[in-house]
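Ticket #4471: structure export looks truncated?
Reporter: QA, pipeline team
Priority: medium

Steps to reproduce: submit the single chain below to the structure queue and open the exported record.
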Amino acid sequence: MNPLDAEAIVIGAGPAGLAAAHALAMRGVKRVSVIDRDDEAGGLPRFCRHLGFGWEYTRRLETGPGLARRLLHALDPSRVTVMTRATALAIHPGPEVEIVSPDAGHVRARPRTVILATGIRERPRSARLVPGRRPEHGILSTGQLQQMVARGVAVGGKRAVIVGTEHVAFSVLLTARHAGLRIVAMVEPQDRVMSYAGAGWFARALGVPIHLSSAIDDIKGSERVESIALRGKNGSTTLPCDTVIFTGDFVPESALLHASDIDVDRLTGGPMVDQFGRTGASGVFAAGNLLRAVESSGMAAIEGDRVGANAAAYIQGSLGWNGGAAHVSLGDGLAYLVPQRWAPVENRAIHAQSLPISLRATADARGRIRLSQHGRELWTSGPLRLRRQRRIKISPAIFANLTDGAPAALTVSAP
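Actual output as written to the record:
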């Protein structure tokens, strides 16, 4: 299918985009085009050959490539076409999508709706402000390592340090070991492992020490990394190694947003959306880790599925565009909220397709979450233990009584 003929165009063929395309087709949309600039569909999971992908969506314990294959095989080829090596250059009002690819050339497609599911990218070492030399070899990011291993490219080193302890850092630990690297240490600037405690126990059981409250002062080596100088709470130390792998520090892949009329949230770096994934540009939805970095592949697929259902409802006329949405701002102690806007809806049944709430705290704390509007408290949680980088579980139902268009606020207060 040529994207010029599509009723719906999904930009991005990772878990969110493929799940969105499936939901569109399952709800009667006959011409769906998925475009992705990479040479294969599946997104980042296809480079991760260990288990742990997609559980929330599939309820199966699968590898990354296994999840990608499952999502692709679920698509109805009579309704959905996946076009790789195709790049969306711009989104114009209409919506209109400017696309370039070796097969289609340079075209402007005018679908009924567009779903943005471009996912995330990693910030490079330079943007992380890590001091030290710039050796030609031995400094990698998560994505570089995973792609090299998946494509059979030799990493070249023997002794590696992993910088970071969030969930993806332990995925990197498994991938690096598969590549034949010995992990000599993991380094974390915070005072605890940022993933679940069990992940830290797993690393230590493998003989990998974890340096908490530590930061890199220097990277030494010219042609290849030779060692790193580490500053921690117990002083400075030098770790001999030939590879340094920086993990995490993902940001939304949001370049398309900046040349459009879609509002960008300064807290997440992704688009502002309402509970149905609608952006401020008519006909344009968004889903997955473009909304914020970072949720699991399974959560991204759930978001894609729900937004795909909402986009189908929009095409079929049962869901209009968002007017009178209340913007929810954040007080001290909260890092970001997705969705940021909450629109009034008369048909309560459609609330089943609301996006799951992504709410994060700025630091570890104990407290209560409060929602207020016009100085009136609408809801208060029970006592919570808030953990940085962990989803705070609250129900979308708490936003149902917001006044149309009036701003509201979420805050954290002491218990």
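Status: closed, not a bug. The export was complete when the record was re-opened. Leaving a note from the reviewer for reference: Residues 1-123+249-322 form a domain with the FAD/NAD(P)-binding domain fold (CATH 3.50.50.60).
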